[in-house]
């Protein structure tokens, strides 16, 4: 899909002081440099929280990975832009359980990564991306939106809780 696909102007009830007027659409190849910059920001957040697990200065995907992801209809990436500047992204995965002997058939959208540029935080960019992704999930027949948050990422926990999310399961560890 091209850059124009699924474009939405989100400016009606978000024109409060401090909020930005933002276009949300599927990512395209020209967005890759901005996504890489945000991936570095996410990498640093994770490194600060868990330096025992995350390398400093690392990013989850490189340019080739992103080009491949952009072609995968089951892994949509949505971007928020203002005047062509990438303010945030949301990497998603469509997950479906079918014919499982234990689990019910279900289709859900997993948020692999949601990032807002550190210079734009507090301006409702994350809320608008999250709401847009939830609307997209409903439109394609998903019954839920899921994600993981690292313990210690308190601002992300507060954000997702403010959006109505609740813990589904807890992934635990014991250092040996």
Concise structural overview:
The chain is an alpha+beta fold.
CATH topology: Aminopeptidase
By helix and strand content, what is the structural category? alpha+beta
Largest sheet properties? 6 strands, mixed
Can you write the helix and strand succession as a string?
EEHHEEEHEH
Poorly predicted tracts of residues? 1-17
- Can you name the CATH architecture? 3-Layer(aba) Sandwich
Overview of the structural elements:
The chain is globular and about 50 Å long. It has one domain (8-162): Gcn5-related N-acetyltransferase (GNAT) (Aminopeptidase, 3-Layer(aba) Sandwich). The model is unreliable at 1-17 (pLDDT under 50). Strands 1-2-3-4-5-6 form a six-stranded mixed sheet. It is α+β, with helices and mostly antiparallel strands and 176 residues long. The chain starts with 7 loop residues before the first strand and ends in a 14-residue tail after the last helix. It is 28% helix and 24% strand. Strand 4 (85-97) and strand 5 (106-116) form a beta hairpin. The chain contains four helices and six strands.
Question: Which key phrases capture this entry?
Answer:
six-stranded mixed β-sheet; Aminopeptidase; 6 strands; disordered N terminus; single chain; alpha+beta; 176 residues
Topology:
Layout (H helix, E strand, L loop, with lengths): L7 E3 L11 E5 L5 H18 L13 H7 L7 E6 L2 E13 L8 E11 L8 H15 L4 E4 L6 H9 L14
Parallel strand pairs: 5-6
Antiparallel strand pairs: 1-2, 2-3, 3-4, 4-5
């Amino acid at each position: 899909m091209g850059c124009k696909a699924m474009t939405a102007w989100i400016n009606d009830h978000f024109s409060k002081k401090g909020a930005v007027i933002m276009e949300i659409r599927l990512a395209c190849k020209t967005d890759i440099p901005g996504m890489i910059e945000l991936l570095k920001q996410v990498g640093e957040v994770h490194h600060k929280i868990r330096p025992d697990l995350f390398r400093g200065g690392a990013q989850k995907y490189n340019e080739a990975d992103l080009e491949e992801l952009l072609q995968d209809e089951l892994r949509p990436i949505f971007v928020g832009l203002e005047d062509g500047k990438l303010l945030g992204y949301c990497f998603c995965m469509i997950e479906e359980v079918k014919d499982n002997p234990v689990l019910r058939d279900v289709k859900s959208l997993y948020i692999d990564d949601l990032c807002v540029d550190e210079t734009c935080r507090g301006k409702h960019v994350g809320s608008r991306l999250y709401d847009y992704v939830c609307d997209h999930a409903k439109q394609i027949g998903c019954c839920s939106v899921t994600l993981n948050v690292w313990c210690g990422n308190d601002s992300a926990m507060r954000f997702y809780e403010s959006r109505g999310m609740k813990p589904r399961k807890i992934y635990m560890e014991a250092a040996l």
